From TrEMBL, chain A:
UniProt record similarity statement: Belongs to the archaeal Rpo3/eukaryotic RPB3 RNA polymerase subunit family.
GO cellular component terms, semicolon-separated: cytoplasm; DNA-directed RNA polymerase complex
UniProt cross-references to PANTHER family, sorted A to Z: DNA-DIRECTED RNA POLYMERASE, DNA-DIRECTED RNA POLYMERASE II SUBUNIT RPB3
Protein name listed in UniProt: DNA-directed RNA polymerase subunit Rpo3
Lineage: Archaea, Methanobacteriati, Methanobacteriota, Stenosarchaea group, Halobacteria
UniProtKB/TrEMBL annotation, chain B:
Subcellular location: Cytoplasm
GO cellular component: cytoplasm; DNA-directed RNA polymerase complex
Native organism taxonomy: Archaea, Methanobacteriati, Methanobacteriota, Stenosarchaea group, Halobacteria
Pfam families: RNA_pol_N
Function of the protein: DNA-dependent RNA polymerase (RNAP) catalyzes the transcription of DNA into RNA using the four ribonucleoside triphosphates as substrates.
Cofactor(s) the protein requires to work: Zn(2+)
Name of the protein in question: DNA-directed RNA polymerase subunit Rpo10
Alphabetic keyword roster: Cytoplasm, DNA-directed RNA polymerase, Metal-binding, Nucleotidyltransferase, Transcription, Transferase, Zinc
Keyword Iron belongs to the record: no
Reactions catalysed: RNA(n) + a ribonucleoside 5'-triphosphate = RNA(n+1) + diphosphate
Comment on bound cofactor: Binds 1 zinc ion.
Main location: cytoplasm
Gene this protein is translated from: rpo10
Automatic annotation (TrEMBL), chain C:
Protein name stated in the entry: DNA-directed RNA polymerase subunit Rpo12
InterPro entries tied to this protein: RNAP_P/RPABC4, RPABC4/Spt4, Rpo12
Family: Belongs to the archaeal Rpo12/eukaryotic RPC10 RNA polymerase subunit family.
Tagged with keyword Ion transport: no
Length: 249, 64, 44
Protein backbone atom coordinates (compact mmCIF):
# COMPACT_ATOMS: atom_id res chain seq x y z
CA UNK A 1 0.00 0.00 0.00
CA UNK A 2 1.05 3.54 -0.63
CA UNK A 3 2.23 5.64 2.26
CA UNK A 4 -0.24 8.16 3.51
CA UNK A 5 0.63 11.01 5.71
CA UNK A 6 -2.12 12.60 7.77
CA UNK A 7 -1.66 15.84 9.70
CA UNK A 8 -4.42 17.42 11.74
CA UNK A 9 -4.59 21.19 11.47
CA UNK A 10 -7.69 21.80 13.57
CA UNK A 11 -9.60 19.26 15.56
CA UNK A 12 -12.46 19.21 18.05
CA UNK A 13 -15.53 17.06 18.63
CA UNK A 14 -17.70 18.25 15.77
CA UNK A 15 -15.25 19.90 13.37
CA UNK A 16 -11.85 18.99 12.00
CA UNK A 17 -9.45 19.99 9.27
CA UNK A 18 -6.67 17.65 8.23
CA UNK A 19 -4.11 17.27 5.52
CA UNK A 20 -3.64 13.98 3.68
CA UNK A 21 -0.59 13.51 1.48
CA UNK A 22 0.01 10.75 -0.99
CA UNK A 23 -3.53 10.13 -2.22
CA UNK A 24 -4.87 10.51 -5.74
CA UNK A 25 -7.71 12.96 -6.41
CA UNK A 26 -10.01 9.98 -7.04
CA UNK A 27 -9.20 8.47 -3.68
CA UNK A 28 -9.64 11.81 -1.91
CA UNK A 29 -13.09 12.07 -3.46
CA UNK A 30 -13.77 8.49 -2.41
CA UNK A 31 -13.08 9.40 1.21
CA UNK A 32 -15.37 12.40 0.96
CA UNK A 33 -18.18 10.37 -0.54
CA UNK A 34 -17.78 7.57 1.99
CA UNK A 35 -18.05 10.04 4.87
CA UNK A 36 -21.27 11.48 3.44
CA UNK A 37 -23.06 8.44 2.10
CA UNK A 38 -21.64 5.31 3.71
CA UNK A 39 -21.59 6.12 7.39
CA UNK A 40 -24.95 5.19 8.91
CA UNK A 41 -26.81 7.27 11.48
CA UNK A 42 -30.04 6.85 13.39
CA UNK A 43 -32.91 9.01 12.24
CA UNK A 44 -36.64 8.99 12.88
CA UNK A 45 -38.38 7.20 10.04
CA UNK A 46 -41.95 6.48 11.14
CA UNK A 47 -44.08 8.54 13.50
CA UNK A 48 -47.33 7.45 15.14
CA UNK A 49 -49.39 10.46 16.17
CA UNK A 50 -51.62 9.74 19.12
CA UNK A 51 -52.68 13.35 19.53
CA UNK A 52 -51.73 16.44 17.57
CA UNK A 53 -53.76 19.56 18.12
CA UNK A 54 -50.85 21.86 17.23
CA UNK A 55 -50.94 24.28 14.31
CA UNK A 56 -48.72 22.08 12.14
CA UNK A 57 -49.77 18.99 10.21
CA UNK A 58 -48.61 15.52 11.22
CA UNK A 59 -46.47 15.28 8.07
CA UNK A 60 -44.73 18.58 8.75
CA UNK A 61 -43.89 17.55 12.30
CA UNK A 62 -42.72 14.14 11.10
CA UNK A 63 -40.30 15.82 8.70
CA UNK A 64 -38.92 18.03 11.47
CA UNK A 65 -38.48 15.02 13.75
CA UNK A 66 -36.64 13.16 11.00
CA UNK A 67 -34.06 15.93 10.74
CA UNK A 68 -33.12 15.88 14.43
CA UNK A 69 -29.71 14.20 14.80
CA UNK A 70 -29.63 11.19 17.12
CA UNK A 71 -26.46 9.89 18.73
CA UNK A 72 -25.33 6.75 16.97
CA UNK A 73 -22.83 4.30 18.42
CA UNK A 74 -20.84 2.73 15.57
CA UNK A 75 -19.08 0.02 17.54
CA UNK A 76 -21.16 -2.79 16.08
CA UNK A 77 -23.97 -2.45 18.64
CA UNK A 78 -26.51 -1.90 15.89
CA UNK A 79 -27.05 -3.23 12.37
CA UNK A 80 -28.69 -1.60 9.39
CA UNK A 81 -32.48 -1.20 9.77
CA UNK A 82 -32.38 -1.70 13.55
CA UNK A 83 -34.99 0.46 15.25
CA UNK A 84 -35.14 2.41 18.47
CA UNK A 85 -38.42 3.86 19.72
CA UNK A 86 -38.72 7.41 20.99
CA UNK A 87 -41.74 9.05 22.59
CA UNK A 88 -42.83 12.65 23.02
CA UNK A 89 -45.66 14.05 25.12
CA UNK A 90 -45.93 17.81 25.58
CA UNK A 91 -48.96 19.85 26.50
CA UNK A 92 -49.31 23.59 25.89
CA UNK A 93 -48.68 26.32 26.65
CA UNK A 94 -45.11 25.16 26.13
CA UNK A 95 -42.62 24.53 23.34
CA UNK A 96 -41.79 20.94 22.46
CA UNK A 97 -38.00 20.58 22.12
CA UNK A 98 -35.90 17.77 20.73
CA UNK A 99 -34.71 17.20 24.30
CA UNK A 100 -38.27 16.23 25.29
CA UNK A 101 -37.98 13.07 23.21
CA UNK A 102 -37.66 10.06 25.50
CA UNK A 103 -35.65 7.24 23.99
CA UNK A 104 -35.98 3.53 24.73
CA UNK A 105 -32.22 3.16 24.33
CA UNK A 106 -29.65 5.15 26.32
CA UNK A 107 -27.16 5.05 23.45
CA UNK A 108 -29.57 6.65 20.97
CA UNK A 109 -30.55 10.09 22.21
CA UNK A 110 -31.22 13.44 20.55
CA UNK A 111 -27.77 14.92 19.87
CA UNK A 112 -29.07 18.44 20.45
CA UNK A 113 -31.51 19.12 23.23
CA UNK A 114 -32.77 22.59 22.35
CA UNK A 115 -34.07 22.32 18.80
CA UNK A 116 -37.67 23.61 18.87
CA UNK A 117 -40.10 21.16 17.27
CA UNK A 118 -43.37 23.04 17.72
CA UNK A 119 -44.68 25.87 19.83
CA UNK A 120 -47.85 24.69 21.59
CA UNK A 121 -50.50 27.17 22.73
CA UNK A 122 -52.96 26.78 25.58
CA UNK A 123 -54.98 23.60 25.16
CA UNK A 124 -52.85 22.17 22.38
CA UNK A 125 -51.14 18.86 22.87
CA UNK A 126 -48.67 16.70 21.03
CA UNK A 127 -48.27 13.04 21.84
CA UNK A 128 -46.43 10.70 19.55
CA UNK A 129 -44.28 7.64 19.27
CA UNK A 130 -41.48 7.48 16.71
CA UNK A 131 -39.28 4.74 15.32
CA UNK A 132 -35.68 5.69 14.57
CA UNK A 133 -33.92 3.54 11.99
CA UNK A 134 -30.22 3.06 11.31
CA UNK A 135 -29.86 4.06 7.67
CA UNK A 136 -27.32 5.35 5.17
CA UNK A 137 -26.81 8.81 3.72
CA UNK A 138 -27.10 7.41 0.20
CA UNK A 139 -30.73 6.54 0.93
CA UNK A 140 -31.82 9.77 2.60
CA UNK A 141 -30.04 12.99 3.55
CA UNK A 142 -31.39 12.73 7.09
CA UNK A 143 -29.04 9.77 7.60
CA UNK A 144 -25.94 11.79 6.68
CA UNK A 145 -23.55 12.02 9.59
CA UNK A 146 -21.14 14.33 7.78
CA UNK A 147 -22.15 17.91 7.13
CA UNK A 148 -20.29 20.12 4.66
CA UNK A 149 -17.58 17.56 4.02
CA UNK A 150 -15.12 18.78 1.40
CA UNK A 151 -11.52 19.02 0.40
CA UNK A 152 -9.15 21.29 -1.51
CA UNK A 153 -5.64 21.03 -2.76
CA UNK A 154 -2.93 22.09 -0.39
CA UNK A 155 -1.39 25.22 -1.87
CA UNK A 156 2.29 25.98 -1.80
CA UNK A 157 3.30 29.62 -1.65
CA UNK A 158 6.73 30.53 -2.96
CA UNK A 159 8.43 33.89 -2.75
CA UNK A 160 9.82 34.67 -6.22
CA UNK A 161 11.13 38.18 -5.70
CA UNK A 162 10.37 41.62 -4.36
CA UNK A 163 7.09 43.25 -5.07
CA UNK A 164 6.99 46.19 -7.44
CA UNK A 165 7.09 49.37 -5.42
CA UNK A 166 4.36 51.04 -7.46
CA UNK A 167 2.05 48.06 -7.77
CA UNK A 168 -1.72 48.33 -7.36
CA UNK A 169 -3.00 47.52 -3.91
CA UNK A 170 -5.00 44.53 -4.98
CA UNK A 171 -5.62 41.67 -2.58
CA UNK A 172 -4.50 38.17 -3.54
CA UNK A 173 -7.18 35.89 -2.20
CA UNK A 174 -6.48 32.26 -1.36
CA UNK A 175 -8.65 29.92 0.65
CA UNK A 176 -7.88 26.74 2.51
CA UNK A 177 -4.47 25.95 3.86
CA UNK A 178 -1.12 27.06 2.47
CA UNK A 179 2.29 25.53 2.85
CA UNK A 180 5.11 28.02 3.19
CA UNK A 181 8.62 27.50 1.91
CA UNK A 182 9.64 26.53 5.41
CA UNK A 183 7.10 23.70 5.31
CA UNK A 184 4.78 25.40 7.76
CA UNK A 185 1.01 24.80 7.35
CA UNK A 186 -1.01 27.98 7.73
CA UNK A 187 -4.82 28.21 7.48
CA UNK A 188 -5.64 31.19 5.26
CA UNK A 189 -8.04 32.64 7.85
CA UNK A 190 -4.96 33.58 9.86
CA UNK A 191 -4.10 36.29 7.35
CA UNK A 192 -7.66 37.14 6.34
CA UNK A 193 -7.39 34.98 3.17
CA UNK A 194 -5.20 37.65 1.60
CA UNK A 195 -1.61 36.83 0.67
CA UNK A 196 -0.62 40.51 0.56
CA UNK A 197 -1.28 40.60 4.30
CA UNK A 198 1.27 37.88 4.95
CA UNK A 199 3.78 38.79 2.26
CA UNK A 200 3.43 42.57 1.95
CA UNK A 201 6.74 43.14 0.19
CA UNK A 202 7.26 40.01 -1.87
CA UNK A 203 6.06 38.71 -5.18
CA UNK A 204 4.61 35.25 -4.55
CA UNK A 205 3.50 32.33 -6.66
CA UNK A 206 0.84 29.87 -5.59
CA UNK A 207 0.81 26.27 -6.82
CA UNK A 208 -1.36 23.28 -5.96
CA UNK A 209 0.65 20.56 -4.26
CA UNK A 210 0.08 17.31 -6.07
CA UNK A 211 -1.66 14.53 -4.19
CA UNK A 212 -2.01 16.61 -1.04
CA UNK A 213 -5.54 17.42 0.08
CA UNK A 214 -6.92 19.42 2.96
CA UNK A 215 -10.20 17.98 4.21
CA UNK A 216 -12.84 19.98 6.04
CA UNK A 217 -15.15 17.71 8.00
CA UNK A 218 -18.07 18.52 10.27
CA UNK A 219 -20.59 16.20 11.88
CA UNK A 220 -24.23 16.81 12.75
CA UNK A 221 -23.60 15.55 16.29
CA UNK A 222 -24.47 11.89 15.74
CA UNK A 223 -20.86 11.01 16.59
CA UNK A 224 -17.56 12.88 16.83
CA UNK A 225 -15.39 13.69 13.82
CA UNK A 226 -12.82 10.97 14.56
CA UNK A 227 -15.55 8.33 14.46
CA UNK A 228 -16.93 9.73 11.20
CA UNK A 229 -13.57 9.73 9.40
CA UNK A 230 -12.66 6.31 10.74
CA UNK A 231 -16.02 4.84 9.77
CA UNK A 232 -15.77 6.34 6.29
CA UNK A 233 -12.36 4.82 5.73
CA UNK A 234 -13.43 1.48 7.21
CA UNK A 235 -16.28 1.37 4.72
CA UNK A 236 -13.87 1.91 1.79
CA UNK A 237 -11.56 -0.77 3.13
CA UNK A 238 -14.47 -3.16 3.66
CA UNK A 239 -15.63 -2.75 0.09
CA UNK A 240 -12.10 -3.09 -1.28
CA UNK A 241 -11.68 -6.36 0.57
CA UNK A 242 -15.04 -7.56 -0.65
CA UNK A 243 -13.96 -6.83 -4.21
CA UNK A 244 -10.65 -8.58 -3.69
CA UNK A 245 -12.38 -11.69 -2.46
CA UNK A 246 -14.93 -11.57 -5.24
CA UNK A 247 -12.34 -11.50 -8.03
CA UNK A 248 -10.17 -14.24 -6.56
CA UNK A 249 -10.66 -17.70 -7.93
CA UNK B 1 -43.96 28.77 10.93
CA UNK B 2 -41.27 27.19 13.15
CA UNK B 3 -37.52 27.58 12.49
CA UNK B 4 -36.14 24.93 10.14
CA UNK B 5 -34.25 22.25 12.05
CA UNK B 6 -31.37 22.22 9.57
CA UNK B 7 -29.84 24.52 7.01
CA UNK B 8 -31.44 23.82 3.62
CA UNK B 9 -28.13 23.94 1.81
CA UNK B 10 -25.53 22.19 3.96
CA UNK B 11 -27.62 20.28 6.50
CA UNK B 12 -26.03 21.84 9.57
CA UNK B 13 -28.39 21.80 12.58
CA UNK B 14 -29.31 25.44 13.26
CA UNK B 15 -32.71 25.10 14.99
CA UNK B 16 -31.11 25.11 18.43
CA UNK B 17 -29.52 28.51 17.86
CA UNK B 18 -32.77 30.27 16.96
CA UNK B 19 -34.11 31.16 20.39
CA UNK B 20 -30.88 32.80 21.49
CA UNK B 21 -30.56 34.61 18.16
CA UNK B 22 -34.14 35.84 18.43
CA UNK B 23 -33.70 37.03 21.98
CA UNK B 24 -30.43 38.84 21.37
CA UNK B 25 -30.64 40.14 17.81
CA UNK B 26 -34.36 40.44 17.07
CA UNK B 27 -35.81 41.42 20.41
CA UNK B 28 -32.55 42.71 21.86
CA UNK B 29 -30.41 45.35 20.21
CA UNK B 30 -27.25 43.36 19.52
CA UNK B 31 -25.70 43.23 16.07
CA UNK B 32 -26.96 40.08 14.27
CA UNK B 33 -23.53 39.57 12.70
CA UNK B 34 -21.82 39.38 16.08
CA UNK B 35 -24.51 37.15 17.56
CA UNK B 36 -24.19 34.68 14.67
CA UNK B 37 -20.41 34.65 15.04
CA UNK B 38 -20.72 33.93 18.74
CA UNK B 39 -23.27 31.18 18.15
CA UNK B 40 -20.81 29.52 15.76
CA UNK B 41 -23.08 29.80 12.72
CA UNK B 42 -20.27 30.39 10.25
CA UNK B 43 -21.36 29.73 6.68
CA UNK B 44 -23.59 32.21 4.90
CA UNK B 45 -26.04 29.44 3.94
CA UNK B 46 -26.68 28.71 7.63
CA UNK B 47 -26.70 32.39 8.59
CA UNK B 48 -29.48 33.25 6.15
CA UNK B 49 -31.63 30.53 7.74
CA UNK B 50 -31.77 32.53 10.97
CA UNK B 51 -31.58 36.05 9.52
CA UNK B 52 -34.48 35.51 7.13
CA UNK B 53 -36.72 33.49 9.42
CA UNK B 54 -40.02 34.71 10.81
CA UNK B 55 -42.04 32.83 13.43
CA UNK B 56 -45.61 32.46 12.21
CA UNK B 57 -47.00 30.09 14.83
CA UNK B 58 -48.43 32.98 16.83
CA UNK B 59 -50.07 34.37 13.71
CA UNK B 60 -51.88 31.19 12.73
CA UNK B 61 -52.66 29.95 16.26
CA UNK B 62 -56.07 31.75 16.59
CA UNK B 63 -57.40 30.01 13.48
CA UNK B 64 -57.04 26.50 14.82
CA UNK C 1 -70.60 11.61 10.95
CA UNK C 2 -69.47 13.64 13.93
CA UNK C 3 -68.88 17.35 13.63
CA UNK C 4 -68.48 20.28 15.95
CA UNK C 5 -70.43 23.50 15.65
CA UNK C 6 -68.05 26.41 15.17
CA UNK C 7 -70.28 28.82 17.13
CA UNK C 8 -71.57 26.87 20.14
CA UNK C 9 -68.69 24.30 20.12
CA UNK C 10 -71.13 21.42 20.72
CA UNK C 11 -70.83 18.01 19.10
CA UNK C 12 -73.26 17.57 16.25
CA UNK C 13 -74.44 14.36 14.61
CA UNK C 14 -75.54 14.82 11.00
CA UNK C 15 -77.99 12.63 9.14
CA UNK C 16 -79.07 12.83 5.55
CA UNK C 17 -82.38 14.63 6.32
CA UNK C 18 -81.46 17.59 8.51
CA UNK C 19 -79.04 19.32 6.11
CA UNK C 20 -75.90 21.08 7.27
CA UNK C 21 -77.11 22.92 10.36
CA UNK C 22 -76.41 22.81 14.09
CA UNK C 23 -79.58 21.53 15.84
CA UNK C 24 -78.76 23.52 18.99
CA UNK C 25 -78.02 27.01 17.68
CA UNK C 26 -78.85 26.82 13.97
CA UNK C 27 -75.34 27.78 12.88
CA UNK C 28 -74.41 26.50 9.44
CA UNK C 29 -70.65 26.27 9.89
CA UNK C 30 -69.59 22.85 11.20
CA UNK C 31 -66.04 21.62 11.71
CA UNK C 32 -65.00 18.03 11.22
CA UNK C 33 -63.11 16.68 14.20
CA UNK C 34 -59.84 14.83 13.91
CA UNK C 35 -60.33 11.07 14.06
CA UNK C 36 -59.36 9.67 17.47
CA UNK C 37 -57.24 6.79 16.12
CA UNK C 38 -53.47 6.78 15.94
CA UNK C 39 -52.12 8.05 12.62
CA UNK C 40 -48.90 6.62 11.28
CA UNK C 41 -46.77 8.87 9.09
CA UNK C 42 -43.66 7.98 7.13
CA UNK C 43 -40.86 10.53 7.17
CA UNK C 44 -39.82 11.14 3.58
Amino acid sequence: MADYDVTFIERDDTEARFLVRGVTPAFANGIRRAMIADVPTFSIDTVRFIENSSVMFDEQLALRLGLIPLTTPLGGEFDEDDTVTLALDVEGPETAYSGDLVSSDDMVQPAEEDVPIIDLKDGQRLELEADAVLGYGQDHAKHQGGVAVGYRHLQRVEVVGDRDEFRDDEPEIVRGVIETEGGELVPTEEFDNDLTERYPDSEVEVHDVENAFVFDVETDGSFDVDTLVQAGIDSIRGRAEELKEAVQL
Amino acid sequence: MMVPVRCFTCGNVIGGEWEEFKERAREGDEDPEEVLDELGVERHCCRRMLVSHEDLVDVVAPYQ
Amino acid sequence: MSYKCSRCKRDVELDSYGGVRCPYCGHRVLLKERAPDVKEVDVE
